[in-house]
Each structure stands twice: as structure tokens, then as C-alpha cells.
Amino acid sequence: MRNYVAVTCSVLLAAALLALVIDPENGIFNEYSDHVDRELDEPLRVLAMVSAPTTAAPTTTIAAPTTVAPTTSVTPTTWPPPPTTWPPLPTTTSPPATIAPVTSAVPTTKAALKPKAKKKPKPEAQTEPTVAPTPPADKNLDGGVVISPTGIALPVIEKLAEGWKVETPCGLAYTIVDGTHIGSADFVIDAGHGGSESGSVGPNGLVEKELNLDVANRVASGLEALGYTVVRTRTSDVRLPLKARAHIANALSPHAFLSVHHNGGATQRSSVPGTEVFYDYGAPESKRLSGLIYEEMIASLSAFPTSWVRSVRAGVQARLNQDGSDLYGIHRYTPDVPSVITEALWISNSGEADILARQDVRQAEADAMVRAVTRWRTTSDAGSGFNEDFVDGTATGTGGYGECADPLL
User: Fold this and answer.
1) Which residue from 39, 47, 112, 231 has the highest number of Cβ atoms inside 10 Å of its Cβ?
2) What is the pLDDT of residue 272?
3) Position 58 pLDDT exceeds 60
4) Is the CB of residue 389 less than 8 Å from the CB of residue 283?
5) Which residue, among 154, 280, 151, has the nearest Cα to 220 in the 3D structure?
6) Cα–Cα nearest to 172, from 137, 127, 134
7) Do the beta carbons of residue 277 and residue 289 sit within 8 Å?
8) Of all helices (H) and strands (E), which one includes residue 321?
9) Is residue 220 part of a domain?
10) Burial class (CB in 10 A: 0-12, 13-18, 19+), 261
């Protein structure tokens, strides 16, 4: 009987110790569960070794609280009575029944594993293009031009019952009612660059587009004084694409088309002006007129001594693309009109920029061109200063329809 009491006490003591570390509400270890292995197992093992009788059943059957019912007839004197009901110890490592297992959000079927199809973004609203439409094909617009109230020469596409359908500088069709119609002209004078295309700028701040316009107006006035009819491609600071300039010349079928420029970049010293003149390749009259302009310019500008510069192209020549066509659009787009480009002096050279700021030098340059045109029309003089034609397809990329904005018409 004594041994039975001892065994029963040992069991009750072990159960009480377990109750201290078991959460009575959910049957799992409480916040001290990380210490259970070393604090709970040791007292149970010691008690079992001290209290177990030699005839008692093996400790493995005693340690299982589910197989030994608590004895209610024994009242221990040193330990509080056990509760009438006792929570069973967990016998497996599976989660208690009172805690719902966490369901995985990851799909387990192939269909569920298939990624969601992304929604296609709604197409953006279409906007109108900002660039000008493709201009009309190159052709001779033989209806003349209309000079708009702002002085812009507009090639005529069609005569209307009231007004004209014309081509704007950006190559667009436009109907104009007010303006002056000119059916033909003896000469078309073009002031190079303009608007956003300034051309070369001198050390003294002289801007080529402004100098070109001034000299071109002087040339036009000189030819008009001789009785020739003249149309200017521009009379103000506006940008004109090369094709717009060429279309004006084609529409008027002049004797010649003269484009006034001034050069930039050369540094090689020279004893004479480094004037360059370019003609239309394969056009004998264009070449002859260029030679005469070169002669007259050298003679006229040499009267104003300064520190001249030149390039290896000083003189008269045609500049070609790799395919043998004219590089410059002024020539290429006017195949039926003799055309000439003048580069009188080097605005980038400080000495030449200084004299080009003078009115008398500008007038001398213009007079030289007028004399050359007169000789071209009245004599068979061949001119001089000719160089070999050369191939150089390097272009500046300016003068096209890109980012074109029509001026006020």
C-alpha cells in the first residue's frame, strides 16, 4: 500500500509540474515553452527513479497520464488536491484541434498556377502630326508668283475665280486673294539663310543672314535700275527651305537665279580676296556667269585691303555629290534655270568682317555682281578663276522642310 501511495504521488507531482508549463486554454506550451526540454524532463526522471518500487510497472506506462486515472480516495497532506478533470497531455506533434490550420494562398493546380493575363492598355488618342505634309513634287510651276502683302513670293499652283491657289514656303497649298501677281522675271535674287538659320557670325557680331539680305537688295536694286525685272525670294528675316527658293525661280523662268552668301571657317592667309563661286554642273551659261562674277568681285573687293583668307576652293567650280549630281539644292532643284551661288568674303575672318560692316564695301560687292550680269547678257566673255569640279557630299543638313513654320503671309 505504501508503494502504491508513493507511485500515485509521483504521478500527481509530475502532472502538476506539467500544468505549470501547459496553457490550459489551448493545450500548447506557453511563453516559456523554449525552456521545457531542460526544465521539465529532469524532475520527472529524478522522481521516477526515487519513488518507483521494484515491483512497479515500467516507467513508460506510468509516465503516460492518459492510461493512469487519478485516485480520488487519497488525500495528500503536502500537495493541493487535483482538479476533478485534467487536460490530457498532447500525444502527437500535430496542431491542436482548436486552432484552424492556415490555408495556403498558393494555387495547387496547373490552371490556378497560370498567370493572370495583363490587361492591354487603352490606345492613346491619335494626334495630328506636327511636321508639314510632303511638299509637292519638284516641277516648274509656270503660273508665276503672287507677292503676298507681307512680301513673300508664293509660286502659283492654280488661278481661281477669285484669287490664287499658291504654295507656301513650307510646301502647303494656300488660297490667297490679296497680293500682286508676277508672271515672269528677268532675274531672281536670293538672300541666303534667314530666320532660325543665321549662317556664319563674324568676330564683330556681324550675322550672315542680315548681310546676305542687305547685299541681295542692293543687287536687285542695281538690276532694276538697268530696266530688268527682279523678284527677291525674301525681303525680311524669314526662313525659307531650299525647295521653296527653287520653286520661286522655276515658276518665273528667269535668265538667271543668283543666291548671295558669305563664307566662314577659312584661316589660310591670302594676298587677294578668297572669293568662291559655285555654278550648276553641266550648264555652260551658269559656268560662264560664275566666271564673270568672280572676275568682277576680285577686281572690286581688292580695292579694300585687309588681311584676306582663303580655302583650297578659292575660285569657280561645281561641287558634286558622290552620284555626280549637284550638292547644292539651289542648283539641283532648278535644272532649267542657270543658277549661281556667291561666297564673296569670309565673315569669320576679323579683317574681312570689319570691312563687310561698311556700307561702301557692301555696295562694291553688289555693283560687281550687276556688272558681271551685264557682261553676261551683252558679251560673250568667258570669265576666269575656274577650278576643277570636285566631289564632296558633306552637307550641313539645313535648308529642308523639317520643323518648317510658314511666315505670316
Assistant:
1) 231
2) 97
3) no
4) no
5) 151
6) 134
7) no
8) none
9) yes
10) buried
Give phi and psi for 27, each to the nearest 5.
Answer: 75, 20
| Whole-number Å distance between alpha carbons of 259 and 200 | 15
Instruction: Give the three cell numbers for residue 299.
Output: 577686281
Which strand (E) or helix (H) includes residue 41? Answer: helix 36-51
Q: What b/e sequence results for 339-361 when a residue is b if at least 16 CB atoms lie within 10 Å of its CB, and e otherwise?
A: bbbbbbbbbbbebbbbbbeeeeb
Q: Over 80: is that where the pLDDT of 286 sits?
A: yes
Residue 12 falls within a domain, yes or no?
Answer: yes
Question: For residue 49, is pLDDT > 60?
Answer: no
- Find where cell 510646301 sits: 171
Q: Which residue type, as a one-letter code, is found at position 162?
A: E
Shared-domain flag, residues 241 and 373: yes
Residue 240: CA count within 13 A, CB half-sphere: 31
Q: What is the CATH number of the domain that holds 367?
A: 3.40.630.40
Partnered with residue 181 across adjacent β-strands are: 146
pLDDT, tens digit, 9 for 90 and up, residues 66-110: 444 444 444 444 445 444 454 454 444 444 444 444 444 444 443
How far, in Å, are 5, 17, 166, 234, 301 from residue 170 at the CA level?
117, 100, 11, 14, 36
Say yes or no: 187 and 59 in one domain. no
Q: Which amino acid is at 231?
A: V
Residue for grid cell 535700275: 225
H or E segment and range at residue 351: helix 350-356
What domain range is 327 assigned to? Answer: 181-391
Average pLDDT, the chain: 78
d(CA 204, CA 356): 10
In this predicted model, what pLDDT tens digit does every residue of 206-259 receive, in sequence order? 999 999 999 999 999 999 999 999 999 999 999 999 999 999 999 999 999 999
